[in-house]
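Support request from a user on the community tier.

User writes: "When I paste my structure tokens into the form, the page sometimes reloads and wipes my input. The last time it worked, I copied everything first. Here is what I submitted, just in case something in the input itself triggers the reload:"
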């Protein structure tokens, strides 16, 4: 099964496609990785080289993907960090064309906007692009709790609030929602939850909070989720398995005392 993954790329470290490609390949998927940035590393270092890619280049790469007819043979398109509003608009146009031609093509959107630690960390116009363009045409979205609040206007802090936020997004066109990194009013102390919403029902997966915060965990989660969905798992089970996969990587990273996620044993 083929997946087209449109998101950032770094030379060193594990964020965007540099976090997502390896686990999806390990799960048996053929990944066509389209970069929206090409950076030396993520921003949590004293220096960073490279740049957000020009929209003309991103659009040209997407045209090459179309010329190889990859969207007709792919099971899913994953969208993540866009870099610029113009890159998001080009990606939205690509999705509109190919969702019309191949309705079975699953769009899994990680609306990378920000998090509780850093707040909003994306360029101007990207919140609007995710809210108004990319998430309404997504079959599944994977925001964290902070991003969910930005998409609907109010941060959900109860399971009922998460369900209502998913309903609001569903009314705009979004299919199903998986919210990561949730700490709700009834979440057990020291735990963090993934909440998958399907048909107005919340499926909750809780794991112990691991006291490290490497970059790229959301990208890794979406990769695992995509892998399990492509293997035929339902949304709730895929979300639970993806959560377990991220937990394994975080425990390995913690044991190694590493700053970057340890995606593999060695």
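"...and here is what came back when it finally went through:"
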């Amino acid at each position: 099964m083929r997946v087209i993954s449109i998101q950032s790329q770094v030379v060193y470290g594990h964020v965007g496609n540099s976090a997502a490609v390896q686990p999806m390949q390990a799960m048996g998927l053929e990944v066509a990785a389209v970069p929206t940035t090409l950076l030396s590393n993520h921003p949590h270092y004293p220096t960073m080289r490279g740049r957000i890619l020009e929209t003309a280049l991103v659009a040209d790469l997407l045209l090459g993907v179309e010329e190889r007819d990859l969207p007709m043979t792919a099971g899913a398109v994953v969208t993540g960090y866009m870099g610029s509003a113009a890159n998001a608009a080009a990606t939205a146009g690509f999705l509109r064309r190919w969702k019309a031609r191949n309705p079975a093509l699953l769009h899994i959107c990680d609306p990378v906007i920000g998090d509780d630690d850093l707040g909003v960390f994306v360029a101007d116009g990207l919140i609007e692009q995710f809210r108004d363009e990319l998430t309404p045409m997504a079959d599944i979205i994977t925001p964290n709790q902070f991003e969910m609040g930005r998409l609907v206007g109010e941060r959900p802090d109860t399971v009922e609030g998460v369900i209502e936020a998913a309903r609001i997004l569903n009314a705009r066109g979004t299919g199903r929602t998986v919210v990561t990194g949730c700490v709700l009013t009834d979440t057990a102390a020291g735990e963090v939850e993934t909440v998958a919403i399907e048909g107005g029902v919340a499926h909750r997966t809780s794991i112990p909070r691991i006291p490290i915060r490497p970059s790229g965990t959301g990208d890794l989660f979406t990769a695992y989720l995509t892998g399990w969905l492509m293997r035929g798992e339902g949304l709730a089970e895929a979300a639970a398995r993806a959560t377990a996969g991220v937990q394994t990587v975080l425990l390995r990273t913690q044991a190694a005392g590493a700053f970057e996620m340890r995606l593999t044993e060695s």
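Agent notes: The reload is a front-end session timeout and is unrelated to the input. The longest strand covers residues 191-198. The mean pLDDT is 97. Escalated to web team.
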